[in-house]
Amino acid sequence: MNLIDMRAIVRRDLHDEDANNYRWTNDELDRHIAHAVKEYSEEVPYEQKTTKATTTGSREIDIAALNDRIVIEAVEYPVGSFPRRYQRFSLWGDVITLLGNEIPDGSDAYIYYGKLHTLNIGSSTIASWHEDLIAAAACGYAATEWAVYAVNRINAGGTTTAAELLGWGQQKLAFFRQELKRLGRKNRIRVHSFYRPFSAPVSKSVDFGP
Fold first, then answer.
1. What is the pLDDT of residues 168-182, one digit of tens each?
2. What does the alpha-carbon distance between residue 178 and residue 184 come to, in Å, rounded to a whole number?
3. Is residue 88's pLDDT more than 70?
């Protein structure tokens, strides 16, 4: 699905398919779709892996070139090992600092990160099973925006139209955010670790003494 397809779905859900009398312009709907994609990306980022060369004797890796970055999930160094060797790291600005015992020798590192999704005329990085979620959010943003605009204005639907549209839009957004909470990376229970913890886990059943 591309942006044109998504816009058509949003118009259908908004009952705004009369091309001679659109309530929302294409630019307005595109803005609401982009808003939905950005909020979705914050919780379900587009997963990426890139190769970055290290500097001999330096623990720092410059990642300024990773555009639209949301989160750094892991750093693998050195690469090519099995099991893979993931390093503890800190992130400040555009610089990753490796905190483990491994001092880089100039060889490559793998950076695993999440970035903003794209949804444009040519392509989309959003999973097909989440496209309806984006459409619901875009409808919610469009409906609430129009409801605010319609306050104290005469419209053919009567005085309750703005309030009804606002309520409908808020329901769409509530559903969207509820699903994001369920899907989001911040709320997932992890059953694995990318790297060895800095300190050993504390046992709840064995006393190892002082």
1. 999 999 999 999 999
2. 10
3. yes
* pLDDT band, residue 191 (cuts 50/70/90): very low
- Of 47-56, 122-131, 165-174, 193-202, the poorest mean pLDDT is in 193-202
pLDDT of residue 197: 45
Residue that is written with structure tokens 């979620």 in the block = 133
Q: Where along the chain do its domains lie? A: 3-43+118-187, 46-115
* CATH classification code of 46-115: 2.40.30
